[in-house]
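User: What would this chain look like folded?
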Amino acid sequence: PAPQLAPAEPPPSAKRELVILISIDTLRADHLGLYGHHRFTSPNLDLFALEGTVFEDASSVAPWTLPAHASMLTGLYPLGHAVVDVDTKLPEGVPTIAKLLGKNGWKTAAAVNSMWLLKKTHEVTRDFHHFLFVQDVATARLPTTPITDQAITWIRDSENSNLFLFMHYYDVHSDYTSLPRFEKLMVSDYEGEADGTSWQLNVASMPDAFIESCHRVFEEEKCSFGSGETTRIVDSSVRKRKFEPEDIRHLEELYDAGIRQLDTELGRFFELLRAENLLDSTRIIITSDHGEEFSDHGSFYHVETPYQEILHVPLIFRGPGIAAGRRIQAPVSLVDLAPTILAWAGVNAPSEIDGFDLSPL
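Assistant: Here's the prediction, encoded as structure tokens.
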């Protein structure tokens, strides 16, 4: 009789790839424990970093959100992608990593927490298949749990597809308003006037001559900031505060409370990934678009200056093929993220890209 053949084994299903890029708005590197900060701001990130590779000298390309994220998502310096001020959009001919990955069969999703990253306004996030915008409310900063929750939903819904996920958190940005339990952890007693609002920080950084000129002759075009209901003006009622050391300490503690709040939310995200058996099989990059000033060179907030407190950002890699416990001193940039992610996906980067694949490091 003919031999009985065992039923053929079904072909193994291709293992899906999951790559996550997390951007923490306004997070300067030296306020994390893994970069030597003296306050206990980042226990979850510190542990995450021990299980991956830390770049000690990572730089942003700009001191504010929009051009920095455009570089992060295109691999081009600002003059290359042309998103350099509030009136510019990403040119149609500039490909984003979301578009390049999408053309190669990947699903892409972005959950963001800043108006600068709205899809149609500046088009930096235009190519993501799935998109969530969570309104940032400066005066009522709560943990951005919707970012985490939507990310987990997308991850579960794409179990049969390769997925690139971009997550953007705003908890650290001013106004420095965190939940009371995080302020109790990080903020000591204080009776001064420093409140950590964006407007107070902006006014504290304005040149005296500018404020005096607006006091003498108020010109709306010159002395107004913002638009609509958020417009702020510099008139005779505006007083520039001179912050003393105890005021600056208080501002930094409020800022650190925001970091601790965000770190706790990231800890929740890592645990959700672990519960899905995905934490160790997922490549994750954590970084920031820029830092923050605390009178390091006489100013506060960000946007205006390119000092290290603004440009030195954290950069942590974790996942398959990424060494644990390694710290790399070679200088790298946010423009290097796009070519690295494309290399992981086996997608050729455009020839005109400015960044480099960091995989060899």
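The two ends are 61 Å apart (CA to CA). If you want, I can go into more detail on any region.
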